[in-house]
Amino acid sequence: MKKGTAVVASATITMLVAGCHVDQWVQPRINSEAASDFYGDMQGSRPDVAGTVSFNGYVAPDERTTGKAGKDFTPNIPAASVKAFGGATSMLKRGQERYNIYCQPCHGVAGDGNGFVALRGMGYWQKLPANLLDKKYGPYKAGQFYDVIANGKGAMYSYSSRIPDVDDRWAVVAYIGALRAAAKLPMPSNLNDSMHGDAPEKHDAGHSASGNESGHASEGEHN
Known about the structure:
The protein is mostly helical. It has a domain at 73-194: Cytochrome c-like domain (Cytochrome Bc1 Complex, Chain D, domain 2), CATH 1.10.760.10. It contains eight helices and two strands, in the order H-H-E-E-H-H-H-H-H-H. Strands 1-2 form a two-stranded antiparallel ribbon. A hairpin with a 2-residue loop joins strand 1 and strand 2 (72-73). Helix 4 (88-107) crosses helix 7 and helix 6 (142-151) packs across helix 7. The longest helix is centred in the middle third of the chain and has 20 residues, at 88-107. It is elongated.
């Protein structure tokens, strides 16, 4: 009986194996970022097809969404972003909140680059986080800080997915300026000017710490 069962089981397994084709799971493929001679430029990763539109909708590039006016970084925080929070005070509070969540672990509470990540040996294998209080950032325009947040720089990756609300990114830029001011350092070019003279408007009290519940426009939601 046992011998017969073994024969049946063996025959079943043989039939199953014979019915499978190796080429169904071992197929030619191109790994992410790998080279490929299939394309003339030898790049396996392909650019978006011309005219491709984000599934979130088309976003017209402007200084609020890119940090640039044409090819140059904008020197000021867009007035529309300040007004979206009802004024500079609310914007700075939001910026402090976002900074403490996403930036403080590396750049530190004071912005001096001594966050927990740096203190745990990050510098042993790569560059230390930027010291945002360094005088070299004095000439930085507001749009340059925004660009780093949105697109990353050096060892820092993009935070666009973590801070999808473009106004929140500007709020972080404003808070960086406040940290520099607290350290009696010059704020980024014209950053101080951009935080004044904006009449407060009604602010959405539902702006929560989770991100896009405020009614602020994210990259895929700007008109």
